[in-house]
Amino acid sequence: MAGGISYTSDETTKLSTGEVYAKMLCDLAEQDPRIVTLTADLAKSTKIGAFMERFPERFYNVGIAEQNMFGIAAGMAKCGLIPFTSCFAIFTSCRGLDQIHTDICYQNLNVKMIGSHAGTSFGQAGTT
Fold it and tell me: Is the pLDDT of residue 63 over 70?
Protein backbone atom coordinates (compact mmCIF):
# COMPACT_ATOMS: atom_id res chain seq x y z
CA MET A 1 0.00 0.00 0.00
CA ALA A 2 1.02 3.61 -0.38
CA GLY A 3 3.34 5.27 2.11
CA GLY A 4 2.12 7.34 4.99
CA ILE A 5 0.13 10.51 4.54
CA SER A 6 0.23 13.37 6.98
CA TYR A 7 -1.72 16.60 7.23
CA THR A 8 -1.10 19.83 9.04
CA SER A 9 -3.60 20.99 11.62
CA ASP A 10 -4.42 23.91 9.31
CA GLU A 11 -5.70 21.43 6.72
CA THR A 12 -7.98 19.53 9.08
CA THR A 13 -9.12 21.73 11.99
CA LYS A 14 -12.33 22.78 10.25
CA LEU A 15 -13.18 19.25 9.10
CA SER A 16 -15.18 16.60 10.91
CA THR A 17 -13.60 13.24 11.68
CA GLY A 18 -15.55 11.73 8.77
CA GLU A 19 -14.35 14.42 6.38
CA VAL A 20 -10.73 13.82 7.40
CA TYR A 21 -11.28 10.08 6.84
CA ALA A 22 -12.73 10.72 3.36
CA LYS A 23 -9.83 13.03 2.49
CA MET A 24 -7.29 10.46 3.66
CA LEU A 25 -9.06 7.67 1.78
CA CYS A 26 -9.10 9.68 -1.46
CA ASP A 27 -5.43 10.61 -1.07
CA LEU A 28 -4.46 6.97 -0.47
CA ALA A 29 -6.56 5.81 -3.42
CA GLU A 30 -4.87 8.40 -5.61
CA GLN A 31 -1.55 6.67 -4.84
CA ASP A 32 -2.76 3.06 -4.94
CA PRO A 33 -5.29 1.81 -7.52
CA ARG A 34 -5.94 -1.35 -5.46
CA ILE A 35 -7.85 0.64 -2.83
CA VAL A 36 -11.62 0.21 -2.98
CA THR A 37 -14.31 1.13 -0.49
CA LEU A 38 -17.52 -0.58 0.54
CA THR A 39 -20.40 0.74 2.58
CA ALA A 40 -23.65 -0.66 3.91
CA ASP A 41 -25.79 2.22 2.61
CA LEU A 42 -23.99 4.74 4.84
CA ALA A 43 -21.95 6.85 2.39
CA LYS A 44 -23.59 10.08 3.53
CA SER A 45 -23.30 9.35 7.26
CA THR A 46 -19.70 8.16 7.06
CA LYS A 47 -18.75 11.05 4.72
CA ILE A 48 -17.24 8.90 1.98
CA GLY A 49 -19.29 10.56 -0.76
CA ALA A 50 -16.10 12.34 -1.89
CA PHE A 51 -14.54 8.94 -2.60
CA MET A 52 -17.68 7.84 -4.48
CA GLU A 53 -17.54 10.98 -6.66
CA ARG A 54 -13.81 10.74 -7.32
CA PHE A 55 -13.56 6.96 -7.83
CA PRO A 56 -17.04 5.67 -8.78
CA GLU A 57 -15.59 2.47 -10.27
CA ARG A 58 -13.96 1.66 -6.91
CA PHE A 59 -16.97 2.40 -4.69
CA TYR A 60 -19.45 -0.31 -3.70
CA ASN A 61 -22.69 0.24 -1.81
CA VAL A 62 -23.93 -3.18 -0.73
CA GLY A 63 -27.14 -1.85 0.82
CA ILE A 64 -28.16 -2.58 4.38
CA ALA A 65 -26.18 -5.83 4.45
CA GLU A 66 -23.23 -5.39 6.79
CA GLN A 67 -22.44 -9.10 7.04
CA ASN A 68 -22.34 -9.45 3.27
CA MET A 69 -20.13 -6.36 3.02
CA PHE A 70 -17.41 -8.10 5.04
CA GLY A 71 -17.67 -11.26 2.94
CA ILE A 72 -17.42 -9.22 -0.26
CA ALA A 73 -14.43 -7.33 1.16
CA ALA A 74 -12.75 -10.66 1.93
CA GLY A 75 -13.23 -11.80 -1.66
CA MET A 76 -11.84 -8.53 -2.98
CA ALA A 77 -8.79 -8.86 -0.72
CA LYS A 78 -8.23 -12.43 -1.99
CA CYS A 79 -8.13 -10.92 -5.49
CA GLY A 80 -5.41 -8.44 -4.51
CA LEU A 81 -7.51 -5.36 -3.78
CA ILE A 82 -7.30 -3.38 -0.54
CA PRO A 83 -10.88 -2.88 0.65
CA PHE A 84 -11.88 -0.28 3.23
CA THR A 85 -15.29 -0.95 4.77
CA SER A 86 -17.16 2.04 6.18
CA CYS A 87 -20.00 1.44 8.59
CA PHE A 88 -21.31 2.45 11.99
CA ALA A 89 -19.09 1.01 14.73
CA ILE A 90 -21.87 -1.06 16.30
CA PHE A 91 -22.52 -2.83 13.00
CA THR A 92 -18.82 -3.44 12.41
CA SER A 93 -18.11 -4.76 15.89
CA CYS A 94 -21.30 -6.76 16.46
CA ARG A 95 -23.40 -7.45 13.39
CA GLY A 96 -20.50 -8.46 11.15
CA LEU A 97 -18.39 -10.28 13.74
CA ASP A 98 -18.90 -13.82 12.40
CA GLN A 99 -17.95 -12.78 8.87
CA ILE A 100 -14.99 -10.72 10.09
CA HIS A 101 -13.77 -13.64 12.19
CA THR A 102 -14.30 -16.38 9.62
CA ASP A 103 -13.89 -14.66 6.24
CA ILE A 104 -11.22 -12.05 7.04
CA CYS A 105 -9.25 -12.96 10.17
CA TYR A 106 -8.85 -16.72 9.59
CA GLN A 107 -7.27 -15.94 6.25
CA ASN A 108 -5.28 -12.96 7.55
CA LEU A 109 -6.64 -10.77 4.75
CA ASN A 110 -5.77 -7.13 4.16
CA VAL A 111 -9.16 -5.55 4.86
CA LYS A 112 -9.44 -2.20 6.63
CA MET A 113 -12.61 -1.89 8.71
CA ILE A 114 -13.65 1.61 9.71
CA GLY A 115 -16.40 1.97 12.31
CA SER A 116 -17.76 5.44 12.94
CA HIS A 117 -20.39 6.94 15.24
CA ALA A 118 -19.53 4.80 18.26
CA GLY A 119 -21.58 5.32 21.41
CA THR A 120 -25.08 4.80 22.68
CA SER A 121 -26.79 7.24 20.34
CA PHE A 122 -26.08 9.17 17.18
CA GLY A 123 -27.66 12.56 17.82
CA GLN A 124 -30.29 13.30 15.22
CA ALA A 125 -30.30 9.71 13.94
CA GLY A 126 -31.15 8.29 17.37
CA THR A 127 -30.10 4.98 18.83
CA THR A 128 -29.33 2.02 16.63
Answer: yes
